[in-house]
Automatic annotation (TrEMBL):
Signal among keywords: yes
GO CC terms: extracellular region
Identification of the protein by name: Polysaccharide deacetylase family protein
Primary localization class, coarse: secreted
Domain of life: Archaea
Length: 427
């Protein structure tokens, strides 16, 4: 293997093309404040055995590419690599990456015996970690140019496939001749860190960009600020509500929508989902209340006559195996991942979304426009999240709506609903 300078800083490794994304765009605030953001060559398969839909027209690469049953093709160029037969998502072992306290990242590289063609596909991994971290996949050509894909994973989550967002392109990458695959995760908390990866796979990409504008929490600003702007540009959104916070009438106190306001949005073509009964981060909910927080919204939707609302946005992107299973058994989709421009969903419970960082409630106008432009150029499914809005946020939304309307008119972006993702982009 050609020895390059792999030991870049963690921030450089995780940087993506849009300014502010490395530590901001794509992250989700970890707070329960209702006014703040509360709320993913011996080992190769031929792609046929794991075809997600059986469609003969899918790219040849679709399916599991490396099951990590043999690690001899991989080299640790930062940190360490070993097999772990006690922790895996498939087969008999996984790849265990670790870094010492003094290290800033771990990186493993597979130099391919023959180049692979990744045109029209997006990579993903099954992930498990003992410390929350960004995980990076780079598909690199012989000249060193690469496409980068990113996802964030939390400790305590089940060892399952994660959807990755497409976040960076360097140079003029030859996607028909990819010669190396890099997998990286970053430390930074002065502790020894560990990541387990399994089931390196490819899913079909989404050539023409699709965008969902998702409003989380059911705040009244969905109706007073967002609705008129979206209507002006002939756009619809998706509102993910906390039913216990919805007000019966406008005489009731609170900052959430009334039942009539919500009904008007749905009548206008908006999609409906939930952030749980109270909109609380589930890992902070008492264990005896988790089930009701997840399931009660479904009964509320049924009682109100909303029959297409089986979509759950995990507040803060946090869940444990029990929560994950409960949502999976009762909802069609879960939104928990980060970043933009994902491909088909290899995991329907970890659909990606992009939002502001902990110090910024909603994305600003420049960030929103950049996200749209990226998705228009590179394709994929991008879900943009807004929380409670003020007038400045409304101005940013209007700038975004105007650019989105331009891209729709040009034919390089379309709106997408949760139902369309579930029906068209989940194998």
């Amino acid at each position: 293997m050609k020895r390059r300078t792999y030991l870049a800083t963690a921030s450089t490794t995780a940087a993506i093309a849009i300014a502010g994304c490395a530590g901001g765009i794509g992250t989700t605030d970890d707070t329960d404040d209702p006014d703040e953001p509360n709320e993913s060559d011996g080992n190769e398969t031929d792609g046929d055995g794991d075809d997600p839909s059986g469609d003969d027209d899918l790219p040849e690469m679709v399916g599991t590419f490396d099951d990590f049953e043999d690690l001899s093709a991989w080299e640790a160029v930062a940190g360490s690599l070993e097999a772990d037969s006690e922790r895996m998502s498939m087969g008999s072992q996984s790849a265990h990456l670790s870094m010492a306290e003094s290290e800033t990242q771990a990186r493993i590289v597979r130099e391919l015996s023959e180049p692979i063609d990744v045109e029209g596909v997006v990579p993903g991994l099954a992930l498990s970690t003992d410390s929350s971290t960004n995980v990076v996949i780079q598909l690199q050509d012989a000249g060193g140019d690469f496409h980068q894909f990113l996802q964030y994973t939390y400790d305590g989550q089940p060892f399952v496939r994660q959807n990755f967002g497409h976040t960076e392109v360097t140079g003029d990458v030859d996607l028909n001749e990819i010669t190396e695959i890099h997998i990286t995760f970053s430390g930074g908390d002065d502790n020894e860190s560990h990541l387990w990866v399994d089931d390196l796979h490819f899913v079909p990409g989404v050539e023409d960009g699709r965008v969902m504008v998702q409003f989380q929490g059911g705040f009244e600003s969905d109706y007073t600020h967002a609705f008129p702007i979206m209507e002006e540009y002939d756009l619809t959104g998706a509102t993910f509500v906390a039913p216990e916070r919805i007000r019966i009438t406008d005489e009731a106190s609170g900052d959430r929508m009334t039942e009539d306001q919500l009904a008007e949005l749905v009548d206008a073509g908006w999609s409906l989902g939930t952030v749980g009964a109270r909109g609380l981060q589930l890992h902070r909910v008492d264990s005896d209340q988790v089930e009701s927080d997840i399931l009660d919204p479904l009964a509320w939707f049924e009682d109100k006559g909303y029959d297409d609302a089986q979509y759950f946005a995990f507040p803060g992107g946090r869940y444990d195996p029990e929560m994950y299973e409960l949502v999976g058994e009762n909802y069609d989709l879960g939104f928990a991942g980060r970043y933009m421009s994902q491909g088909w969903a290899s995991n329907r419970l970890n659909i990606t979304r992009i939002s502001a960082d902990a110090g910024q409630r909603n994305l600003n106008a420049d960030q929103l426009v950049d996200i749209l432009d990226w998705t228009a150029e590179h394709g994929g499914i991008t879900t943009i999240v807004f929380y409670k809005m003020d007038q400045e946020d409304a101005s940013a939304l209007e700038a975004m709506a105007s650019r989105l309307a331009e891209h729709r008119s040009a034919g390089d972006l379309e709106l997408i609903t949760p139902g369309e993702i579930a029906n068209e982009y989940v194998p």
